[in-house]
Design a protein that fits this description.
This protein is an all-alpha fold. The protein is built from six helices and no strands.
Length: 142
């Protein structure tokens, strides 16, 4: 049988086990302190979001983590572009391009008038949507 580290250093197996048993609660407390500190930092960073969703309740650690995940998902999800936004952008570029020349032909003037009218028409303007916060109910066992 190969010599162990404990045997090589002169410590008995019982002494190593006892040292590990004494160290385990200290290491566990340090781990819990790190977790609690990180949760408090999240609570501080996203405090406004928490007040919007749960203004009068005391937040538990699980609540803070769930709300943080919801907030990150909401802020990370790309907002899909609608066809109207692409159309409006295209019309803007056409109007800009046709407006560059001082001397315009009749066709350029007609196109410019047509696209300026389309640009001002409410049917082709892209709607402005405000970001609505995702309000998911927190899981509560009671």
């Amino acid at each position: 049988m190969a010599p162990t580290i404990a045997a090589a250093t002169g410590y008995s197996q019982g002494h190593v086990t006892m040292t590990n048993k004494l160290r385990k609660p200290v290491v566990e407390k340090m781990r819990r302190d790190r977790i609690n500190s990180s949760i408090e930092q999240l609570k501080t960073l996203l405090g406004k979001e928490f007040v919007k969703q749960q203004p009068d309740s005391k937040l538990e650690k699980a609540d803070i983590l769930e709300m943080t995940v919801c907030y990150l998902r909401q802020s990370a999800s790309p907002r899909p572009a609608t066809g109207n936004e692409g159309y409006s952008r295209c019309v803007q570029e056409i109007v800009h391009f046709l407006s560059r020349d001082e001397m315009k032909t009749e066709t350029q003037r007609k196109l410019l008038n047509h696209f300026q009218a389309a640009q001002n028409s409410p049917a082709h303007q892209s709607p402005v949507k405000e970001a609505t916060p995702v309000k998911s109910a927190l899981w509560r066992p009671w």
